[in-house]
Amino acid sequence: MLIRNFKRSDTEQIATLFHETIREINRDQYSLEQVKAWAPDDIHFKDWESFCLSKHTLVADDEGVIAGFAQIEDNGYIDCFYCHKNYQQMGVGSRLFEALVKIAKELKLEELMVESSISARPFFEHNGFSVVTPQKVYRRGQVLENFLMKKSI
């Protein structure tokens, strides 16, 4: 598996991965209404392309299949961090996280931040993040719980 930078041709796979992962994996901790608000049916690929180009976006490429993707901003904020529903618990997240830390160190950052879902919280805690505060996030009329988490590097 290759961890590499995002390419425009990845856009459709990334948007689909985001949608399917939330709709299937996050259903254990969030209601159907909440996951539909978080990952609506109307995926706009052009929006995803510009969104991915606006940050340091990495993909885990398994011979043409995107097994996961992660993003970090110049200030250390980890925006998206998702592993494909068929690649859960296979080390994809760990590989992506290592690559994000490398970018953070190149940027001379001292801290990483993430707003973690209930589902992703154990992964981030395992990687040294601590909960700063629980949060309520509003998406398309739904309230979702997540956690602001930080880690010193």
Automatic annotation (TrEMBL):
<dbReference type="GO" id="GO:0016747">
    <property type="term" value="F:acyltransferase activity, transferring groups other than amino-acyl groups"/>
</dbReference>
<dbReference type="InterPro" id="IPR052564">
    <property type="entry name" value="N-acetyltrans/Recomb-assoc"/>
</dbReference>
<feature type="domain" description="N-acetyltransferase">
    <location>
        <begin position="1"/>
        <end position="153"/>
    </location>
</feature>
<dbReference type="Pfam" id="PF13673">
    <property type="entry name" value="Acetyltransf_10"/>
</dbReference>
<protein>
    <submittedName>
        <fullName>GNAT family N-acetyltransferase</fullName>
    </submittedName>
</protein>
<dbReference type="InterPro" id="IPR000182">
    <property type="entry name" value="GNAT_dom"/>
</dbReference>
<dbReference type="InterPro" id="IPR016181">
    <property type="entry name" value="Acyl_CoA_acyltransferase"/>
</dbReference>
<keyword id="KW-0808">Transferase</keyword>
